[in-house]
C-alpha cells in the first residue's frame, strides 16, 4: 500500500515554522562613539617630510603641504570627524617636483573619516575622502578624485595617508594613451596635527556602548 506523504510534509513545514518563530533576531552592531579631545577644535595640519606621489611610474614630491581642520566628536561607523580645508601642495620657493615639469593643484574640502580604533596602540584607522587633485605633468592635464586609507596616532598626533590601488583613480585625462582614466595615483603623506595657535596635540578615542 502506498503511504500518504502529506502529513510528513505538513509536519516538516510546521517544524520549520516553529524554528523561524523561536529564532532570536540578529543584534545590530552598536555604533562607535568617537571622542575628540578637545572638541570641537580648529587645528592646523603641516606635512612631516615630503609628500610623495607616483602615477604610472612617474615619481612626484612636494616638500611641504598644509591644511586647516575642524575636528569634532561624532557617533557612527564610519563617522566624519573632520573637514580638511584649503589643502596646499608645495610652497613659495619649494614647489612640487618631478622628472618632468609639474604643477599640483589640490581642491578641498576633504574629509577625515574614522572606522576603527585600537585601544592598545591609540590608533584610529579610516580614510580621507573627497580628495580632488589636479596634475599638470609636462603636457598632461589630469584630474584625480577619490579616497586614501589613513590612520591617526594619539601618541604622535599625526595623520598618515597611504593610498592603495584603486583608491585615487584618474578621472580626467587629455591623453588616454599615456595615462588612461582609472590609472591609480599613489599618495603617501604624514601631517602633524595641532590645535591652532598652540603646540597642543589632539586625542581621538573610539568606544562601543
Give a brief outline of the structure:
By secondary structure, the chain is mainly beta. It has one helix spanning 6-22, and strands at 33-37, 41-47, 51-55, 58-62, 65-71, 74-75, 79-89, 97-98, 102-106, 110-118, 123-137, 140-153, 158-162, 170-173, 185-195, 203-207.
Notes on the protein architecture:
- This protein has 209 residues and is mainly beta.
- It is built from one helix and 16 strands.
- It has one domain.
- The longest helix has 17 residues, at 6-22.
Q: How are the elements arranged and paired?
A:
Layout lengths: L5 H17 L10 E5 L3 E7 L3 E5 L2 E5 L2 E7 L2 E2 L3 E11 L7 E2 L3 E5 L3 E9 L4 E15 L2 E14 L4 E5 L7 E4 L11 E11 L7 E5 L2
Antiparallel strand pairs: 1-6, 1-16, 2-5, 2-15, 3-4, 3-15, 4-8, 5-7, 7-10, 9-11, 10-11, 11-12, 12-13, 12-14, 13-15
Keywords:
eight-stranded antiparallel β-barrel; disordered N terminus; 209 residues; 54% strand; 8% helix; single chain; three-stranded antiparallel β-sheet; mainly beta
Roughly how much helix do the residues carry, as a percent range? under 10%
Strand count, sense and closure of the main sheet? 8 strands, antiparallel, barrel
Number of strands: 16
Order of helix and strand elements from N to C terminus = HEEEEEEEEEEEEEEEE
Class computed from helices, strands and strand pairing: mainly beta
Q: With helices defined by DSSP (H or I, 4 residues minimum), what is the helix count? A: 1
Radius of gyration: 25 Å
Could you list the spans in which at least 5 consecutive residues all have pLDDT below 50?
1-28
Taken as a percent bin, the fraction of beta residues is: over 45%
Give average pLDDT, whole number: 89
- Estimate nothing, just give the exact number of structural domains: 1
Shape: globular
Distance between the termini: 63 Å
Strand order of the largest sheet: 2-5-7-10-11-12-13-15
